[in-house]
Amino acid sequence: VVEGSPLDGERFFLAPAGAYLVLYVANFALFLMQAQFYIAILVGSFDATREAEEARRAARSLPAGFAASSPLPAQEAAVAVASYWVGYRLAGAFEWDVRPRLEALVRDAEVRRQEA
Q: pLDDT by residue (tens digit) across 16-55?
């Protein structure tokens, strides 16, 4: 507990209004100093948080030349998921990999036919 100047003694009896004034002014000055200390801590924390958020935002930003895309609508997302499962399960490959695999199978079939 912070205590101000004592309110007993000869000085208090000679000038009670002045003693109260000094007491309140001194306590108010101590309060302002302590408040400035807490404000400095808060401002330092705020600056550190702002720098961390800027670093996170920079890490999450897109490189130059790229544009952000919006999420697929529900119907397109369902079609994409269905085509993945059906295409991958039936053809054994992703969509972009089916054509080269089919071309390789055709070449192998032609080589076997020429050998036979």
A: 787 788 888 988 999 999 999 999 998 999 999 999 999 8
- What are the Cα distances from residue 60, in Å, to 1, 23, 67? 48, 55, 13
3-class SS letters over the chain: CCCCCCCCCHHHHHCHHHHHHHHHHHHHHHHHHHHHHHHHHHHHHHHHHHHHHHHHHHHHCCCCCCCCCCCCCHHHHHHHHHHHHHHHHHHCCCHHHHHHHHHHHHHHHHHHHHHC
Cα–Cα distances (Å) from 90 to 76, 77, 100, in that order, read 20, 20, 16
Q: What is the reported pLDDT for 99?
A: 75
Mean residue pLDDT across the chain: 81
Cα–Cα distance between 59 and 51 in angstroms, integer? 12
pTM of the model: 0.36
